[in-house]
Amino acid sequence: MKAEERRALALRAAVIEFGKSGYHATSTSSIAERMGVSQPYLFRLFKSKMHLFVAAADWVLAEFRRLLDRAAETRHGAEVLDSLLGDLGRPSAAQRNLLRFELSLYAVAGDPEFSKVAQEHFEAFCGEAARVSRAEEKDLNDFLGKISMLIIRAMIDE
Q1: Quick one: residue 111, left, alpha or beta (phi over 0 = left, psi -120 to 50 = alpha)?
Q2: CA angle, residues 55, 116, 40, in degrees to nearest 5
Q3: By the 8 A CB rule, do 79 and 136 touch?
Q4: Residue at 142 is within a domain
Q5: What number of other Cβ atoms are within 10 A of residue 58's Cβ?
Q6: pTM above the 0.85 mark?
Q7: How far apart are CA 98 and CA 102, in angstroms?
């Protein structure tokens, strides 16, 4: 398996582990174990736990962009946002992991090391939702409130 494929596996494992336990409570050994490699190998792929977390945040944002683009293929305006909410409201395990990771990202936003990453991620997500949907501001605000509820639901529901 190529290093790029291993990096993709590491990101998926990191999203799951950070989403379950948050940044501080997640060990890199649990991420390495989930992907079936040694912890030193994980550090050959990513310089540090923080670099892995930031890369996972970027990967999650790209996944949300992909979901938004898919919703916009046949819809416009608030319908795009409603479609995404519908998909995320009955999420697959992979989507639930995305939502859980979002909560772990925002949970560390008060930490100076992560505040910029969380802010940029949030602004990029909001901007992408606005750009793709071209929905009115009221519809975007409603969407953000509803997706916040889905993020919390994903964490407390099994």
Answers
A1: beta
A2: 30
A3: no
A4: yes
A5: 15
A6: yes
A7: 6
Nearest to 135 by CA among 71, 57, 66, 90: 71
Q: Would you give the DSSP letter of residue 153? A: H
The answer to whether position 124 is within a domain reads yes
Per this entry, what is the length of the chain?
Answer: 158
How far apart, in whole angstroms, are the C-alpha atoms of residue 72 and residue 54? 27
Question: Residue 137: helix, strand or coil by DSSP?
Answer: helix
Two tokens, residue 153: 């639901």
Over the stretch 137-150, which tens digit does the pLDDT of each residue have? 999 999 999 999 99
Q: Are residues 61 and 125 in contact, defined by beta-carbon separation less than 8 angstroms?
A: yes
Task: Give 154's Cβ-side CA count (13 Å radius).
Answer: 28
Domain count, the chain: 1
What is the span of the domain harbouring residue 150? Answer: 48-156
**Residue 4 clears pLDDT 70, i.e. is over it:** yes
> Which token pair is 117?
């990453």
Residues 68-98: tens digit of each pLDDT: 998 888 888 899 999 888 888 887 888 899 9
In a domain, 138, yes or no: yes
Whether 121 maps to a domain, the answer reads yes
* C-alpha to C-alpha distance for 104 and 15, rounded to whole angstroms: 9
Q: How confident is the model at residue 158, as a pLDDT? A: 63
